[in-house]
Specification:
With 141 residues, this protein is mostly helical. It has helices at 5-18, 26-33, 37-49, 74-81, 89-92, 105-121, 125-128, 132-140, and strands at residues 53-56, 62-65.
Length: 141
């Protein structure tokens, strides 16, 4: 499975927010990672709709985690952001290939996906966040 840029930005955004005690701006995240503010804003919108991020408008507004990092599964975020996580299209559908009726590869790939998903769902944001000091070093560089 190769993750989309949108998923990458979502995970980076959550990691960034997990190291902050106060609200942050979308521009802060975009600047740190040298990525488009518009792309980060779209990702934040999706994360907010899914309940991972709380967004406050106006003066003093910004974004912050809506959940504790231990309650955010990396696998759930990937599942939210990705439309297709199958290794091959045949794993997600039937009759996608001429040899589907006797192909043993589909079963192998299905099991690989199951193991991967099980693992990713068992990893929390708390386990992958860098320290605030590590982010600060990047910000000041």
């Amino acid at each position: 499975m190769k993750l989309t840029t949108q998923t990458d930005y979502a995970l980076r955004t959550l990691m960034f927010l997990a190291t902050r005690d106060t609200r942050s701006k979308v521009a802060d995240i975009a600047n740190l990672f040298a990525i488009s503010t518009n792309h980060v804003a779209k990702v934040v919108n999706l994360l907010a709709r899914a309940g991972y991020v709380h967004s406050t408008r106006g003066i003093g507004g910004g974004i912050e985690l809506a959940l504790d990092p231990v309650d955010i599964s990396v696998g759930e975020v990937i599942q939210l952001m990705e439309s297709d996580t199958h290794l091959l299209s045949c794993v997600g559908t039937d009759d996608s290939c001429l040899i589907h009726s006797f192909c043993k590869l589909k079963k192998v790939l299905s099991e690989a996906e199951r193991v991967q998903q099980e693992y990713l769902h068992g990893v929390t944001l708390a386990e992958v966040i860098p320290t605030r000091r590590q982010f600060n070093r990047v910000e000041s560089a």
